[in-house]
Amino acid sequence: MAVEYYDFGPYKIHHSSVFHTTDLSFAFVNLRPVVPGHVLVCPKREVKRVADLTDDENIDLWRITQKLGRQLESYHNSSSLTFCIQDGPHAGQSVPHVHIHILPRKSGDFENNDDIYEEINEKEKELKRKLEVDIERKDRSLEEMAQEADEYRKFVL
To answer: Where does the HIT domain start and stop, copy by copy (predicted)?
Structure first.
């Protein structure tokens, strides 16, 4: 039987938003991307901190991140990548499940390159507030996210 949802901390990620899986990890499109191609990679097992990953999970997570980063950079005609991990609540981690942000970067996408980290933090805080309280959301639809995931599945072998 196919998986309908993937656990991401206390949240459920619909399978249509997931575009790559291994035995240990999965990658999915972002509900509120900071830049085009902003995706997340995380272990299937709910792990709160990087230090709690097994060696196999750590290797798999970074192997997928490296592979997808290269493919997303090419797909989005980018020249660079930002990889971001917030490891623990005081580091800005809003979902207590290890995850790596992959963000394809282009010249001029942010006036100051480091502003992207503040944008990520703001998006995560905003998402957490919206998920905790049932307010009208401006998130992407499941259909929009599924369409993006379908595009990425084409190049993930």
So the answer is: 4-112
Domains present along the chain, CATH in parentheses: 5-153 (3.30.428.10)
Which pTM does this prediction carry?
0.83
Q: Half-sphere exposure (CA, 13 Å, Cβ side) for 155?
A: 14
Which residues sit in the known binding site for substrate? Answer: 30, 86, 92-95, 101
Mean pLDDT of the residues in the chain:
88
From CA 74, how far away is CA 68, in angstroms rounded?
10
Residues annotated in the binding site, as ranges?
30, 86, 92-95, 101
pLDDT in tens, 15-51: 999 999 999 999 999 988 999 999 999 999 999 999 9
Q: Whole-angstrom Cα distance, residue 151 to residue 76?
A: 11
